[in-house]
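Quick one: structure for this chain?
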Amino acid sequence: MNELKYHRMNLNDLDAIVTDILMKPSHETAMLNLWNEFGTVQHKVLSIIAALSSTNQRGVEISEIASTFQELGEMIPLDEVSTICESLADAELLEKTTSPAEQSEPYQITIPLYQMWLKQNKPPRTVFGQRSIESPSYQ
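Got it. Here's what it folds into:
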């Protein structure tokens, strides 16, 4: 916007900026810095939550995360998923969401732009090291 000497923005401008941030490698450094602060298992959880989330969704359940691990060929206990999510919440990357109708506390990513970047650049099959989208390789 500065380069074009715009003094006002509209929603189309904002969409272009978000797309620019998500697609251009020059903007990736900030996202990668956040990504690189954590280990492989945290990467997997973040990737799953981003993939299963939408902007208006209530959050992702611990059981959904564990099920996705299983679908991708890795078993992980629910209490371990919960511990990982709690540690990511302590780091302020995740937050618990609640609603009166729900008994559990689903998690969502606190930074919407980071969630969009994860969804675009770190899909679960890639993070889990699988190449085929159609058939995961169970070992």
